[in-house]
Amino acid sequence: MNCNVDLLDEKGFVETSLKAIERANMKLAVTSGENPMHYRIGDDAMGGGVSVNALITTSHLTIHSARKHRIVEFDCATCGQNSHPEKALEVFKQFLKTNTLKIHFKNF
Fold first, then answer.
1. What is the pTM of this model?
2. Dihedral pair phi/psi, residue 67, rounded to 5°
3. Helices (H), the chain
4. Cα separation, 13 vs 62, whole angstroms
């Protein structure tokens, strides 16, 4: 997704991840550690960014951003028969106010 770099903040990504999980009819897994995990990279070859990895009961939802390139990578895998990962993607599209989207979809 090509997006506004001002929106690539840690708090926004975590809140949007939780909203996306709910909207997609998925459930956050109960873990002994922090879930979702999140961290910020200050400055690297990609210009820094934020990553969020949420474990859901049927797999995961992961977001990575690269500030320098104004991109966000969205990965959501689920084997939940009533889950709707495309709805999770819609939540992120709205949050990031993206004008470009490339989808690589794999159905097993």
1. 0.86
2. -55, -45
3. 10-23, 85-96
4. 10
